[in-house]
Amino acid sequence: MLYQNLALLAAFACIYSLLAGGMSRIWFNGAVIFTLFGVVMGPLGLDWLRLSMDADGLRLIAELTLAMVLFADSAKADLTVLKRNVRIPERLLVISLPMTIVLGFGAAWLLFDDLTLLEMAILATMLAPTDAALGKAVVSDESVPAPIREGLNFESGLNDGICVPILFVLLALAEGQSGDHGVSLLAIHYMASEIGLGVLVAALVALPGAWLLKQSHDKGWLEESWLQVPVVALAIACFAIAQAIGGSGFIAAFVGGLLFGWRTAHHPLKHDLLERAEGAGDSLSLVTWVTFGAVVVSKSLGAFDWTILLYAVLSLTVIRMLPVFLVLTGLKLGTGEKLFIGWFGPRGLASIVFAVIVFNSSLAGVHTLTMTVVCTIILSVLFHGVSANPLVAWIASRAQRARE
């Protein structure tokens, strides 16, 4: 079965790579196709792809994929545009994110009778962060107005890292691990360690890495066959070191990408290096989503019920879109732009990682929590995947008319 699985994945990856340019112009994005392939080839379909991925294995693949995407996307960020329009991501992260968690908690309180209050808060936190990889069609398309594109990219890069300490505080309280430190001290400890150490690691890894890259290029030491390695290695190093010392690897990967992009802004190889790193991220993304479709979806469908489905729909619409619409009031954005930003809060890799963390906990409502996250991700993959290209075309034409 090992070689059969490998052959199927290799054949699918080869075929998709040959058709990727054409696929980018259709309504379905890569995550939809990867997940559907996993479902069709997995136990729910032909049963040819028999993956026995354990929780730690799936978590590691999802984490590395997310770290790669965060580093590469943030390295491409236009800091000049972001500086001029910092109020969009600032409001999304500082005001809208907490509002989304509170609204998600309220919806869980109304719908789920079998969850404790802390478990409801955990569910809301698990589904609050957006996914940079699943929203790649939006944040990487230059036809999308730059303030919206950079704002969404910056939001998705930081909100999962911000949610990590919140999730761990809630888990510690739910499992009775707060000890004598109290809730406030526990929260301060997690926030300081996760965010502070993440930023510190990013600076200590990305800045010397960018300097060494320049030195190597100037001395003619760079080999063409190794150009795909530096950015990938820096992204993984930022993530892994931060995780190893108790920081947020996601914060480290995103901030590391920002610093690397800033220090190599005018480097002649920057574009080529980032393109190759994106290729590595896309490959990891393919494996993650195929595994998700073949393993997670197949094990989760039997647990779905109407309350889980309703919460998932609310999470992708009202719970996300209402806070975003309210906090963007007063900015120079039309109703269409506000709804566009609110809608493109897809759930994916970060929520998969959070679901695996919670699944390994001792919470009584663990199955309801993880199934709700899985349902939300499935709907997000479908709805956001189908709507990405047409809505990007719509917002681009709207911006073009405004310029004319």
TrEMBL record:
<keyword id="KW-0472">Membrane</keyword>
<keyword id="KW-1003">Cell membrane</keyword>
<feature type="transmembrane region" description="Helical">
    <location>
        <begin position="308"/>
        <end position="328"/>
    </location>
</feature>
<feature type="transmembrane region" description="Helical">
    <location>
        <begin position="195"/>
        <end position="213"/>
    </location>
</feature>
<keyword id="KW-1133">Transmembrane helix</keyword>
<dbReference type="GO" id="GO:0005886">
    <property type="term" value="C:plasma membrane"/>
</dbReference>
<keyword id="KW-0050">Antiport</keyword>
<feature type="domain" description="Cation/H+ exchanger transmembrane">
    <location>
        <begin position="23"/>
        <end position="394"/>
    </location>
</feature>
<keyword id="KW-0812">Transmembrane</keyword>
<dbReference type="InterPro" id="IPR038770">
    <property type="entry name" value="Na+/solute_symporter_sf"/>
</dbReference>
<protein>
    <submittedName>
        <fullName>Cation:proton antiporter</fullName>
    </submittedName>
</protein>
<dbReference type="Pfam" id="PF00999">
    <property type="entry name" value="Na_H_Exchanger"/>
</dbReference>
<feature type="transmembrane region" description="Helical">
    <location>
        <begin position="30"/>
        <end position="49"/>
    </location>
</feature>
<dbReference type="GO" id="GO:1902600">
    <property type="term" value="P:proton transmembrane transport"/>
</dbReference>
<dbReference type="InterPro" id="IPR006153">
    <property type="entry name" value="Cation/H_exchanger_TM"/>
</dbReference>
<keyword id="KW-0813">Transport</keyword>
<feature type="transmembrane region" description="Helical">
    <location>
        <begin position="340"/>
        <end position="359"/>
    </location>
</feature>
<dbReference type="GO" id="GO:0015297">
    <property type="term" value="F:antiporter activity"/>
</dbReference>
<feature type="transmembrane region" description="Helical">
    <location>
        <begin position="371"/>
        <end position="396"/>
    </location>
</feature>
<feature type="transmembrane region" description="Helical">
    <location>
        <begin position="233"/>
        <end position="262"/>
    </location>
</feature>
<keyword id="KW-0406">Ion transport</keyword>
<feature type="transmembrane region" description="Helical">
    <location>
        <begin position="92"/>
        <end position="112"/>
    </location>
</feature>
